[in-house]
Amino acid sequence: MHEIECGEDGRARRLGLFLFRTCLATSPLTSTHTQPDRPAALALRAFGAETATIQDAVKEPALAVARFVWWREAGAGVAAGKPPAHPVPRALAAALAGAAARGAPHPTAASLRYRLGRLADARAGLVAEPGPPGTLEALEAYASDTAGGLAALQLGFGLDPATVDGPVAADADHAASHAGTGAGLAAILRGVPHAAARGRCQLPGDVMERAGLDRDALVRLAGSVLGTGGGEGGAPPPPDPAALAALREATYEVAVVARGHLDAASRLVAGRTLPHPATTPALLPAVGARRYLNALERAGFDPLALAVVHRAGGQGAGGGVGLQLATKWALVTGRV
Q1: CB-CB contact of 182 with 152 (8 Å)
Q2: Taking a C-beta distance cutoff of 8 angstroms, is the pair 274, 168 a contact?
Q3: 117: Cβ–Cβ under 8 A, 6 or more apart, which residues?
Q4: How does pLDDT run along the chain (336 residues), one tens digit per residue?
Q5: Within 13 Å and on the Cβ side, how many CA atoms surround 253?
Q6: Closest CA to 304 of 222, 214, 184
Q7: Of 91, 143, 212, 262, which has the fewest Cβ atoms less than 10 A away?
Q8: If DSSP states are collapsed to H, E and C, what string results for the chain?
């Protein structure tokens, strides 16, 4: 096992061990990595995890925005070779220095600063403007700036400068960005039931309007299907057929865009011989995302139905042994 190293008095080792044991060890984003790119993958995942938890962990919006500003500046410090005294930025700085020492063309300090800054700004925007994104394009941009950016950076750390030329590196970067964006959109769809059960809506406003669905109807529908909304006698009311049809329509519209990104990544992989296995781990989010979207289609684009299956311990949502096998096949073939 490789831990996040940054030269601090054991703090980085403890953080790396904690992250590895809690969530990173089982992630295909990191579990398939070997030196020298695995420490970079761990550090990128840690950066993503740190910024992803701010909105829920910090209830005061001004304090949450301040934390996002700190992480944005931390990314800039990493790019400048002056990371703050925190194990995650220092681990990223060490990874960037290692890539430069190997002569790797990607990621450059400028691209690292740009993508980490975009990620922090995108997540800060959720605090500055609470509620669902106004448009599908805004949701797509959010997925691109977060999951897409991390995937592209991760892939860059895995490229071998001795075997990768400029055009191949550009195609690999685009493939990873598409794979991450598609996976990010699929993850948002997967989270719709969880958010709706807590009174929140993750679907874009224009998509909801076109489908004829509002937040209150979505929340009531989630309460009916998931059993979180009590009616008379404590029993949840029956689902509203009109609201369910509208949810299916809205979900379908987002799913089409997500699949478009996954298909674009697959075309880039098939159209040019990308270095395998160096590029494959960064593209693996597409495997699970495609399986979830396939399951969603079989369910008539009803994310609430898949949530019920998952909660009951079923594997109909595209996970389980099937996902493990699909991931291993992608690693062997390099196809996503």
Answers
A1: no
A2: yes
A3: 72, 75, 76
A4: 334 444 444 455 455 444 544 444 444 444 444 444 678 888 999 999 999 999 888 889 999 999 999 999 999 999 999 999 999 999 999 989 888 887 766 678 899 999 999 999 999 998 888 778 899 999 999 999 999 999 999 888 877 666 666 666 777 888 899 999 999 999 999 999 999 988 889 999 999 999 999 999 999 999 888 877 655 556 677 889 999 999 999 999 999 999 999 999 988 887 665 555 555 677 888 899 999 999 999 999 999 998 876 654 445 555 666 777 777 766 666 667
A5: 20
A6: 222
A7: 212
A8: CCCCCCCCCCHHHHHHHHHHHHHHCCCHHHHCCCCCCHHHHHHHHHHHHHHHCHHHHCCCHHHHHHHHHHHHHHHHHHHCCCCCCCHHHHHHHHHHHHHHHCCCCCCCHHHHHHHHHHHHHHHHHHHHCCCCCCCHHHHHHHHHHHHHHHHHHHHHHHCCCCCCCHHHHHHHHHHHHHHHHHHHHHHHHHCHHHHHHCCCCCCCHHHHHHHCCCHHHHHHHHHHHHCCCCCHHHCCCCCCHHHHHHHHHHHHHHHHHHHHHHHHHHHHHHHCCCCCCCCHHHHCHHHHHHHHHHHHHHCCCCHHHHHHHHHCCCCCCCCHHHHHHHHHHHHHHCCC
- Residue 167, amino acid: P
Residue 78 structure tokens? 């990493």
Give the residue carrying structure tokens 């062997």: 332
